[in-house]
Specification:
single chain, mainly alpha, 11 helices
Length: 277
């Protein structure tokens, strides 16, 4: 146990920092490029190429390219541990592969093509969370860290209990639908504590426990509506800017009524009006 605690507390955040920066840049640049590409194809811009990769009629999603890029670059990083230029290049390639894969995370999650639907916007959430975690680590924060803090003075078992409590509270945040609070709680335990105490968001796995408590369910819905009203407009604007507006299903046309049918409806309405008088 003491060996595990010493390993958790002795992680040097500066090790591999340049590789993490390269990974983050590769992810961001690739994600922005692939989103620009799909939006240009969707807009049917004349000077941009059209269509998808379809060898033999088989549509290949760009997440397949991302998975191949992650496998190849990951094997290079693990097997050869490259440094200098090749280390940076491998990390950029890995970040690019992650971007191509997470850009279609909605397809992986729902097992259907929801790229231009509201459900597909979970892909943008996945990319933003990944970038946020990488930036926090680059900034020097460590998830569930004890080294260099007051906790490092505690015994091995006490540190284990504190870490387990922090992980449990962060997991509660995720179960309650508080994604960002859970992510921040992995680095700053106070956020995890607040998120674990507060009510769950309606529709989250934890909110199912409120079915037998209508009062708590009503409070959760009221609080969620108040918070959503503040952030929804900004979130929709930001997501539209990055990912494009979601596809709106077409409204079926109203059937055209023949002239004699319209006349009979008017006569029927007049008859009802006379009866009511």
């Amino acid at each position: 146990m003491s060996t595990l605690i010493s390993l958790l507390g002795s992680v040097d955040p500066s090790t591999g920092r340049n590789h993490l920066i390269a990974f983050t840049l590769g992810l961001l640049v690739t994600f922005l490029c692939i989103r620009a590409n799909t939006r240009l194809i969707r807009a049917d811009v004349r000077w941009w190429f059209h269509g998808s990769i379809k060898p033999g009629g088989l549509h290949i999603h760009h997440m397949v390219v991302g998975i191949v890029a992650m496998v190849v670059s990951g094997l290079v990083i693990i097997a050869f541990n490259p440094t200098g230029f090749w280390g940076i290049a491998a990390c950029i390639a890995f970040g690019g592969g992650v971007a191509l894969t997470l850009d279609e995370f909605g397809l992986i999650l729902h097992l259907e093509d929801v790229y231009w639907q509201d459900k597909g916007r979970v892909s943008v959430d996945a990319v933003i969370v990944t970038v946020a975690v990488a930036v926090l680590i680059i900034g020097g924060l460590q998830p569930f860290a004890v080294g260099g803090t007051v906790l490092a003075r505690l015994s091995g078992w006490a540190i284990t209990v504190v870490l387990a409590a922090n992980m449990t509270m962060a997991a509660l945040c995720f179960l309650k639908g508080k994604l960002w609070t859970g992510v921040l709680g992995c680095f700053v335990p106070v956020f995890a504590l607040v998120g674990a105490i507060r009510l769950a968001r309606p529709g989250s796995p934890w909110a199912r426990r409120y079915r037998s408590n209508p009062v708590k369910l009503e409070r959760a819905e009221r609080r969620d509506q108040a918070e959503a009203a503040m952030v929804r407009a900004w979130k929709v604007w930001f997501f539209d800017l990055i990912a494009g507006k979601p596809h709106v299903p077409p409204v079926p046309p109203v059937p055209h009524l023949p002239h004699h049918t319209k006349a009979s409806h008017r006569a029927l309405g007049a008859r009802h009006a006379g009866t009511s008088d």
